[in-house]
Design goal:
Blueprint lengths: L1 H5 L10 H6 L2 H15 L4 E3 L7 H16 L4 E5 L4 H11 L5 E3 L17 E5 H11 L3 E8 L10 H6 L3 E8 L8 H11 L7 H15 L2 H11 L3 E2 L28
Length: about 260
């Protein structure tokens, strides 16, 4: 397991032929990493910089899973403002994956349709209200987009997503830690409960020594523990794989009131 996770770039996992042609080299590397975690039933945080294609990389994983293991629904939980982006990316890159958006006042009729779709999309705002219905399904993946939304472990949202049933779990976030180390604990408590101990033990082992005593040895130990399960690339790291910058100038006439 250690060898495969450490050398994930060298494995033979490949996206389907269409996606292989459109994905950039660093995105294919992320796909390989995700497949290794999947193989060993491990969770992870895909923490690439914003704009590097976390959604596409996750969709490549789901497309491959359907091809190899057959159909099974996946639940994607995202902020309301990016739900439309998931729909657009699915239509663009993986049109073979069917998609059901659970939203709106009349959504109560949609839950029985979950087994008939590949990807179910809902929002953090709704998962709190709908958890009793959603936890009746067993999903292939539960994917948290912008997983910093569960950074507060005692929030209703964090507690709700941890009740969901799935074979695998994945978190997507450009900012896995915004303010406090405890936020990292909450995400891993979703991904792999117990991996970072309970919250009191985590505070004793890591938070107090690192935050109060600036203990670099303990900080290094924490980094070593979580390193295999967080994949983070900054734009500068993958600049050679990115297309040339395109600048479009757009002029907009202001109305009298705006002026």
């Amino acid at each position: 397991i250690i060898k495969e996770i450490t050398n994930y770039k060298e494995n033979n996992f490949t996206p389907n032929s269409y996606l292989k042609d459109v994905m950039r080299p660093y995105q294919i590397e992320a796909f390989k990493w995700l497949k290794v975690l999947n193989k060993y039933n491990l969770g992870g945080v895909l923490a690439d910089d914003m704009g590097l294609g976390k959604t596409l990389q996750a969709l490549a994983l789901l497309q491959k899973a359907k091809e190899v293991d057959g159909p099974q629904p996946t639940l994607v939980i995202a902020p309301t403002t990016v739900v439309f982006n998931w729909e657009a990316e699915i239509q663009k890159f993986t049109p073979g994956l069917s998609c059901l958006k659970i939203a709106g006042a009349d959504r109560k009729t949609l839950f029985k349709e979950i087994p008939n779709y590949d990807i179910i999309i809902t929002s953090y705002a709704l998962v709190r209200r709908d958890i009793a219905k959603l936890k009746k399904s067993n999903f292939r993946y539960v994917i948290l987009d912008e997983s910093q939304n569960i950074k507060n472990a005692i929030s209703q949202t964090a507690q709700a997503v941890k009740e969901l049933n799935s074979d695998h779990k994945l978190a997507l976030s450009g900012t896995p830690i915004e303010n406090k180390l405890e936020e990292l604990w909450s995400v891993f408590d979703f991904l792999m409960p117990g991996f970072l101990f309970n919250v009191a033990e985590f505070n004793y082992r890591y938070v107090t020594p690192i935050m109060e005593r600036q203990d670099k040895t303990v900080e290094k130990r924490l980094k070593l523990q979580i390193f295999p399960f967080i994949l983070r690339r900054m734009k500068r790291d993958v600049a050679k794989d990115l297309p040339d910058k395109v600048e479009n100038m757009a002029y907009c006439e202001l109305t009298d009131e705006q002026r």
